[in-house]
Amino acid sequence: MAAWIFLTCSACQSQSESNTQQTDTLVVLTYNIHHGNAPGNAPSKITLDSIAAVINKVNPDLVALQEIDVHTNRSGSKLDEAKRLAELTEMKSHFTKTFDYDGGAYGIAVLSRLPILKKTNYLLPKIDSSGEEIRAVSLIKVQYKDSIQLNFASTHLGLSQKTRLMQVDSISKIAATVSSPFIICGDFNATPDSEAIQKITTVFHRSCTTDCDLTFPFDAPREKIDYIFYKGKNRLQPIDQYAISGTKWSDHLPVVTKFLIQ
Q: Is omega for the bond preceding 217 within 30 degrees of 0, making it cis?
């Protein structure tokens, strides 16, 4: 965080010093990539290069990814999608497996351009009788400049309302164990007026609260179900947020928020 410089005359701060305050920004992107298989493509066609190009154009500091294949037969037994996207974007990765799938693993991941200090995985609860997939939180602690550490996570909530409410409760408990600032992003499978989103916003702030871009489906979005939430309002201030329209490499649109670090 840029330090304030106090002069002998408190009213004499230069414009250049004021502008220095604006240089401490953090760009975050979240993207459900549908295991790299674009809608309409053959099941075996994986387009990680195109997904990486979307990420690289934004040049984010942190990325949350959902629906990631690692060494599965459907995407390629030798392909670790989290590591490959990290290579293509020149970032570091952390993958969290939610369950075994098709000879490999399936789950969520985070990418970071910042030094990663710690990696943690959390499995989320679900209604036992629902037959739903296991969900998780993939959490990293990163170093932002010398004096600021951030917690950043990716998640993908379940399909039933009861399961999502249980998972939001679990995320809130995780948030209570880590220091702020804390950013959690992902596919929450819930619209802004849903009980799950209303509940999580008692703990986190939404990076966008009015006139927010819809995110699903990619070609004619009807719903907002992909979010960037943050905790630590005294440190983080969202100054720009949008979905990247026209992106056709998944059934979801990627979502971006630019934060001012205070």
A: yes
